[in-house]
Amino acid sequence: MKTLKRFPAVDGSLGWYESMPVQRTHPVKQVTKNQYFDYIVVGAGFTGLSTAGRLAELEPDSKIAVIDALMVGQGTSGRNAGFIIDLPHNLDSNESSVLADTHIRELNCFAISRLDRIRQEQGDNVYWNQVGKYMAAHEEKHFKNLDSFTKTLDSINSDYEIVEGADLASRLGTGYYKKAVYTNGNVLVNPAALVVSVAKNLPNNVEIFEKSKVTSVDFNLKKLYFDNGVLTANTIILATNSFTEEFGGCKNKLAPVFTYASLTKPLNEDALHKFKKVSPWGVTSAHPAGTTVRFTSDNRILIRNSFDVLPDLLSNQKMIDEAKVHHRSSFMARFPSLDAIPFEYSWGGMLCMTMNHEPVFSESYPGVYAIAAMNGVGIAKGTYLGYYMAEMIKGNKSEDLDFILSNSNPSWVPPDPFKTIGARVRLSIEQRTAKGDK
Ligand SMILES: Cc1cc2nc3c(=O)[nH]c(=O)nc-3n(C[C@H](O)[C@H](O)[C@H](O)COP(=O)(O)OP(=O)(O)OC[C@H]3O[C@@H](n4cnc5c(N)ncnc54)[C@H](O)[C@@H]3O)c2cc1C
Questions:
Q1: What would you report as the CA-atom Rg of the chain, rounded to the nearest whole angstrom?
Q2: What is the per-residue pLDDT across 215-243, written as a single tens digit (0 to 9) for each?
Q3: Which CATH fold would you assign to the domain 2-437?
Q4: Within 13 Å of residue 79, how many CA atoms lie on the same side as its CB?
């Protein structure tokens, strides 16, 4: 039996969740008694919901539970920047093979089409915008990162457009960026709305339990313990992202990093006047520690930057407030004429990283599987890894599954305190070199 010590919490005011246009259709159900399920998926983010969805398709008569400590949409899946990225996207670009990059793009596109079908079937407005994305640089010294990105795009025959100067400024409504690489396959969403829509779409043989945290586990007996009940399963899947180590699997593999986001109030008439002819857009930075920015289809601006390594896997209001100050300065640098527009929401969430950017995708104990560490691109990656985890559990073989298995070997990270010290030093160097792209 293992007792868990670290649990997910609502870190700040969750902007996407609070402002989402999608309505829940089912009441919140908690674990309140002892029950048996064929499959229990822990974690109701994109990864867990995708695993449950595919298991339900493959085994329509099985009893499946998805459980989460929080409400669907409050976890990291509902806190991210909402880019569903079609292209290979290493936060740190390493040498990677053309075949692997091509395969990753295909898997990402598969995930995008699956999510698109789901939200259309649900008829939910998740602010789905297939508007591509810009990878942009303010500082000339970061142009070399744009060049290395276009080299990867050339190698996999992916179209792109270089946009600069006045053209870029008129498309974005800010003259802050000097140069950008625009690619058209990315989709922008309200991620909390999308994850709720995915949960709503699960068939009737899947039961969702929310506000139900697993407090201890006995994997020999396949039992999960809660404050008010015990769930037993034939097969357990951990889709618990940065918390997966708590359950006893994947020791010394994960390096969770907090990052923060703020969302403004919708721009008022006066401010919108300056955004005339500007369509919703998303910018990721040419520097890995730079700022992500969006102009959303409900006329808000999102700013995401700042990093912290927090071994308790919890942030606090002071840290969120510090990040908000940083967000404000990034906002003002880009939109000096919008000084009257305040942030309405600010929150934190964890990027679950590994040293070599490969995810955890394995059987950790007999009958207990783990999927974790999406390395910053979990909407698409979590969706396809969840799908193929279900395929693997059912014994279905495919080239895609073989590819995933051969690229899911996260390298070793040192235990704490060395992990935290090392990560803090590295992040502080990265943030300093990002300079004006922060
Ligand atoms: C600010 C920010 C911006 C980001 N931007 C992007 C982006 O634009 N595009 C993109 O693709 N990715 C982005 N990411 C990364 C992305 O959000 C993650 O990769 C993704 O959410 C991972 O999904 P998941 O389902 O694997 O994990 P999660 O969404 O974290 O789901 C895991 C779930 O497990 C639950 N859980 C954990 N422990 C327990 C327990 N003991 N009992 C019960 N439940 C438990 C948690 O409550 C949680 O809901 C961003 C992340 C952050 C923080």
A1: 21
A2: 999 999 999 999 999 999 999 999 999 99
A3: FAD/NAD(P)-binding domain (3.50.50)
A4: 25
Burial class (CB in 10 A: 0-12, 13-18, 19+), 194: buried
In angstroms, the CA 438 to CA 432 distance is: 9
Q: In what order do the strands lie in the sheet with 343-353?
A: 161-164, 179-183, 133-137, 281-285, 292-295, 301-308, 255-264, 343-353
Ligand 1 geometric centre to CA of 260 (Å): 13
Extents of the domains making up the chain: 2-437
Q: Is the CB of 67 under 6 A from ligand 1?
A: yes
Q: Which is nearest to 42 in space by CA: 358, 409, 408, 369? A: 369
Dist CA 20 CA 422 (whole Å): 37
Among 41, 46, 76, the mutation site with the greatest number of ligand 1 atoms within 8 A of its Cβ is: 76
Structure confidence at residue 437 as a pLDDT band (50, 70, 90): low
Distance 313 CA to ligand 1 centre (A): 12
For the stretch 106-109, contacts whose Cβ atoms lie closer than 8 Å and that sit 24 or more positions apart, written own/partner, are 107/380, 107/381, 107/384, 107/400, 107/403, 107/404, 108/84, 108/380, 108/381, 108/384, 109/185
- pLDDT value at 3 more than 80: yes
SS3 label, residue 371: strand
The DSSP secondary-structure symbol of 235 reads E
139 alpha carbon – ligand 1 mean position (Å): 31
Ligand 1: centre distance to CA 298 (Å): 23
Quick check: CB of 357 below 6 Å from ligand 1?
Answer: no
Q: What local confidence, expressed as pLDDT, does residue 93 receive?
A: 45
- Give the type of residue at 437: D
Index of the ligand 1 atom closest to the CA of residue 376 = 15
Q: Euclidean distance between the first and final Cα of the chain, in Å?
A: 45
How many other C-beta atoms can be found within 10 angstroms of the C-beta atom of residue 47?
32
CA–CA distances in Å: residue 299 to residues 265, 276, 324: 8, 11, 19
Average confidence score pLDDT of the chain: 94
Pocket test for ligand 1, best of 80, 384, 387 (most atoms within 8 A of CB): 80
Contact between 351 and 372 (Cβ < 8 Å): no
Q: Is the CB of 76 under 6 A from ligand 1?
A: yes
